Amino acid sequence: MSQQKKAGAITFLLENSLFLIAGAAVALVWANTGSHSYHAVAHNGAFHFAVNDVLMAFFFLLAGKEIREAMLPGGALSSARTASLPLMATLGGMLGPALIYVLGAKVLMPELMPGWAIPMATDIAFSYLVAKMIWGKSDANGKTPAPIVFLLLLAIADDAGGLIVLATFYPQPLMVNFGEVIGSSFLAAHQMVVFGTFVGAAIATSLLFWKKLHITNFWLYLLVPGVLSWFGFFFGGIHPALALVPLAWCIPHEHSDLGIWAPGESNRKDTLNVMEHWWKNPVELILGLFGFVNAGVALSAMGTGTWLVLAGLLVGKPVGIILMTKLGQLFGLQLPEGMGTKDLVVVGLAAAIGFTVALFVSVVAFPPGDILDSVKMGALFSFGAAIVTLVAAKLLGVKKAA
Fold this sequence. Notes:
Blueprint: H1 3-15, H2 18-33, H3 35-42, H4 45-70, H5 80-108, H6 124-135, H7 146-169, H8 189-212, H9 218-236, H10 271-294, H11 304-330, H12 341-350, H13 355-365, H14 370-381, H15 385-396
């Protein structure tokens, strides 16, 4: 194979998040053919910690970057006119799955209750990939088809809601005795002080670098405020994978947004975009490691948790999105031009692919054991929503954008 073909193949793998699928597939096969050796490698304490608690911070940083830019002037979430209906759809897409999961857990297996946030997730990369297969990447005028824009807005808002849920309702036990968690949702007072001190120092340092020292090298932001923020999250009892998200708000960035993944976006030279361009491909490799570390579950682990996660995603997600969108329309809000009810149904199904974030929330919600493995299976099987979406689009007669 020529160097050009090799480069093209690697680019294809990176752009379509196939390293994550490959990592998860290797984990599943290895865990079901050599469980002991798989767990010895994947669940090695230092390796597992490095992937889930350190490297995944860069994945969530890029998610934070998309949220931040969508809120800038011209961004899809910058005005009530463009954001209201997608935000209502997002709310339905989060409450619907959580409600189905909670009701099911209450009746069938109360021990599953902590996993209520697992089916709230939408995997933006895979949902976008499926949407491109249905509507095409662009229409005849070179614009992103309206249903894809709506899906991406919904997914970005879902990411924002998911980050808030993770930070608020899933406090993490410390590796050192730094305080007890109060109840299930709030941190002990001294943990909050530690969190506020470190993260406050990180934000202040970042703003000093930006506003006073005019530093544009993103590495300095990662190595000083980024490290401070990570320790603040870690010792404050909030999952440290979220630690770099605040940087998206306090490092040099453009004052307007061109649009979600607009062609000109890759030419922007502000620090936030340069950082995103540098980390985009490494993050795909990180996701491959994440899939390998977390997806190794015995197929026999399927159980009540599996079906509750799937019910939340495959039923609660699209139903919630459709109902809340229709409610918004009753109040006078309108779908984007070029998008109809059939498109909305397909968007709701595409958003049911939880996969990456659902798998991450699973690991955060439960300790190692049978319950964790069962809900992991639900997160992994949610990729089946891609097939359901493609079939539904065919049956409904949804076609590529003209």
